[in-house]
Amino acid sequence: MKLWSILGNSQKLDGGAMFGNAPRALWERWAPPDELNRIELACRALLATPLAGKTVLFETGIGAFFEPKLRERYGVQEDRHVLLESLGEAGFGHEDIDVVVLSHLHFDHAGGLLAPWEEGEPPRLLFPNATYVVSAACWERARDPHPRDRASFIPGLPDLLEGSGRLEIVDGAHCQALGKAVRFHYSDGHTPGLMLAEIVGPERAGGQSHGGVVFCADLIPGRPWVHVPITMGYDRNAELLIDEKREFLADKLERDVHLYFTHDPGCALARVTRDERGRYGTANEVASLQARALPA
After folding, report:
1. Which CATH number fits the domain that encloses residue 258?
2. Lower CB density within 10 Å: C or N end of the chain?
3. 10 Å Cβ neighbour count for 241?
């Protein structure tokens, strides 16, 4: 099996919102802001093939579905569908994808499912041969958002996914489409049912898997958020997220599962570390993956 990091459209969002209650004097060292106080963010997907005999895309980024006015409002930097270009550079088309795994259905993670915006044209799904995998709690949230995060969802997307006849809703550790090759971990601190997909590494003594890669989504958007107290203003429950993150990182450190970051503009993959004070960090950072083997 080989892995590719697949860049989608990039964003610039308010740094204060991205770092919650962390003071600017701290976070601007990690992510220097522009004159509008915005920081650079990637929307990076992960391609794996063959995984359970299939070509699998983890997330689709923000895409190019926004009309120009909304594209500017949400800081989307490109007007074309960058994810499709990145897939092409890796030797794939969206028609080649057998499974799309979605951590949740916020627009910066699921917008790439849609074709680029065209005046007068209704939204339409890409990836015509793919099974779309979504957690049950994320699905319910997208169908009936809370007023606090209603703007984070794409109107009509659940109907398109359901109407495709290729939607798989998951509420356990595995899905039918990928079997035991992928294990799902769940988090509720950012949004209910956030699904963190781990490409499972080989088993060691005792039957526990070791190595592999986990897609961190918005539990840990990038390297700065590996530090346990750092959360986003967009998180629904910061204290719960911190508790979930601490447990998540301890498990990945113990089993040497590498972290894959969607929003870090400079790093796709890293190994978890913990220093003598118990503070988590990263090492062996990799900016991009090009047909890279699964870490073992």
Report:
1. 3.60.15.10
2. C
3. 26
Split into its structural domains, the chain has a count of 1
3-state SS string over 170-220?
A: ECCCCECCCECCEEEEEECCCCCCEEEEEEECCECCCCCECCEEEECCCCC
Report, as an integer, the average pLDDT of 13-27: 96
Give tens-digit pLDDT for 107-131: 999 999 999 999 999 999 999 999 9
Q: CA–CA separation, 112 vs 123, rounded Å?
A: 11
Distance CA 149, CA 141 (A): 9
Q: Which two tokens stand for residue 51?
A: 């995984």
Rounded Cα distance, 152 and 243, in Å: 24
What kind and span of H or E run contains 140?
Answer: helix 136-143
Q: What is the strand order of the sheet 2-7 is part of?
A: 167-170, 131-135, 99-101, 54-58, 44-51, 2-7, 292-293
CB neighbours of 142 closer than 8 A, spacing ≥ 6? 104, 105, 134, 153, 157, 158
Angle CA 124–94–66, to nearest 5: 40
Report the first-to-last Cα separation within the chain, whole angstroms.
12
Angle (CA) 18-115-161 rounded to 5° is: 85
Domain holding 249, by residue range, is 2-293
pLDDT band per the 50, 70, 90 thresholds, residue 158: very high
Rounded Cα distance between 270 and 167, Å, is: 31
* 203 confidence band (pLDDT: 50, 70, 90): confident
Return the beta strands (E) in the chain as ranges. Answer: 2-7, 11-14, 38-41, 44-51, 54-58, 99-101, 131-135, 167-170, 182-187, 194-200, 212-215, 258-260, 269-274, 280-286, 292-293
pTM above threshold 0.85 = yes
Mapping DSSP to helix (H, G, I), strand (E, B) and coil, where does residue 87 land?
A: helix
The answer to whether 236 and 223 have CB atoms below 8 angstroms apart is: no
